[in-house]
Write a structure and sequence with these properties.
about 230 residues, alpha+beta, NADH Oxidase, 8 helices, about 40% helix, about 10% strand, binds flavin mononucleotide
């Protein structure tokens, strides 16, 4: 039997936010400004995330300037075209994000909706009222796995907390990384120092329409091992 949560803690609401923080692309309100106070509130919550050795070397670039948003969107489109065209996205060990699955596979069935939604964001990114680029101090491409995991682990949890905190305020966002193919150009434009690494780009806007739903994912048993990795 699980221990009941303390009375001050609304577990159902917390679970709802955790389960329904989707990558929102088509339901971003492109016309309604997002108040800076809400962005600050959510960022303040993000700062509660873990940070390797308490370094707190995270930085958050908030972009509202329409000219800068348009330039970022142009780079994003260039990157998306290269990615969809198969010109990038393959790791040195051959792991690719652009995988094909069997037609019976859930991920293949979900693919068309993802591509459509991704296409919408690609065409409209410049219209999203706020973009947030989380950054971490250091460049670690050439480092060992311990260092890389420590650096990414010091910015990605905060980024996810940020999405959750926004979502709890009915502000939608999406986790995106395509713009990183032009990371250097975008850093130069925004004045991000060369020794900082960008981790993601969150388009941020009010959510339109009704509530969001939990995603259908591969079953837990197929992605979990206890004591022994079998199979
Ligand atoms: C590391 C990472 C990179 C991603 N990059 C992009 C991106 O560049 N553009 C985009 O539209 N979605 C991007 N996504 C969103 C995924 O497509 C999305 O998480 C996935 O389809 C599952 O949908 P959901 O987040 O709504 O559950 C990214 C997600 C992750 C975790």
């Amino acid at each position: 039997m699980t221990t009941p949560p303390p009375a001050t803690f609304d577990l159902a609401s917390v679970d709802h936010v955790l389960k329904t923080t989707r990558s929102v692309r088509r339901r971003l309100d492109l016309d309604r400004p997002v108040p800076a106070t809400l962005i600050r509130e959510a960022l303040d919550i993000a700062l509660q995330a873990p940070t390797g050795a308490n370094t707190q070397t995270w930085r958050f670039m908030v972009i509202t300037d329409p000219v800068k948003r348009a330039k970022i969107a142009d780079y994003y489109r260039l990157a998306a075209e290269a990615y969809v065209g198969g010109k990038t996205g393959l790791s040195r060990t051959g792991v690719t994000m652009m995988r094909e699955y069997a037609s019976s596979d859930l991920r293949q069935q979900q693919r068309e909706a993802m591509m459509k939604s991704g296409g919408f964001l690609m065409e409209n990114l410049q219209r999203v009222p706020v973009m947030i680029i989380p950054c971490i101090e250091g460049r670690f491409e050439q480092d060992d796995v311990f260092t890389q995991a420590s650096m990414w682990g010091s910015i990605l949890p905060a980024t996810w907390s940020l999405m959750l905190a926004l979502r709890a305020r009915r502000i939608a966002s999406a986790w995106t990384t395509l713009h990183l193919l032009y990371e250097r150009e975008i850093s130069e434009m925004l004045g991000i120092p060369a020794d900082f690494t960008q981790a993601a780009l969150l388009p941020v806007a009010w959510l339109t329409g009704g509530d969001l739903k939990p995603a259908v994912r591969l079953p837990l048993e197929t992605v979990t091992y206890w004591d022994q990795w079998d199979g």
